Amino acid sequence: MKTSLLLQLPDWTAHVPHPAYYPRQYLDLAIERSISAEDVMTKAGLSHSTADHLLEKSDTRISIRDSWQIIEAVRQLTNDDTIGFTLGLSMPLTSHGPLAYAAMCASTPRQAVNILEKFWHLRQRGVSFHRKEAEADICFELTPDLPLPQAFRDVMFSSTLTAVLRAMEFVMPTSNRKEIRLQGPEPAGFHNVAASLPSVHFKQP
Known about the structure:
Structural class: alpha+beta
Radius of gyration: 17 Å
Shape: globular
Strand order of the largest sheet: 1-2
Oligomer: single chain
Helix content: 40-55%
Order of helices and strands: EHHHEHHHHEEHEHE
Number of helices: 9
């Protein structure tokens, strides 16, 4: 039975291809925690063969809807709303494909940020990425392109923002002021990952 997360998503989310790397990371985490790939697929309402494609083929692409169903299924089965931080910390810049390599080849941090902003849609669909600058600060803001349940949104955004943070540590290694802000409340068990993160603020506008 499908999780209730995406039952109301528009039809286009079932047809737009999405890199399978990210749901694969969630599936791998579930397996590490003794949750079978089959259980994840059943919870997500997907065929068990989908798991085989994710785990065996590095260039697999799946729909946004299926990708998000897998992420939400893992969130529910692990009963751990800190998994986004855990996965974001485990993703080096090189894990984000051609976009990452283009950013690594940039001659300046600003050029790297421009590349990230311009080609964001190639790696992350359904979520818009915006850059804002004020004096010496750069703010990266994520905005969902459609309504998402809070718990799912916070897990996905904590993963993405932590991964972006790791990327910025590569292109701006001397920057010592970093923070993550999320709309939702602090998840249970956050203290287990807090020491590996910069300042994280919850219940933000």
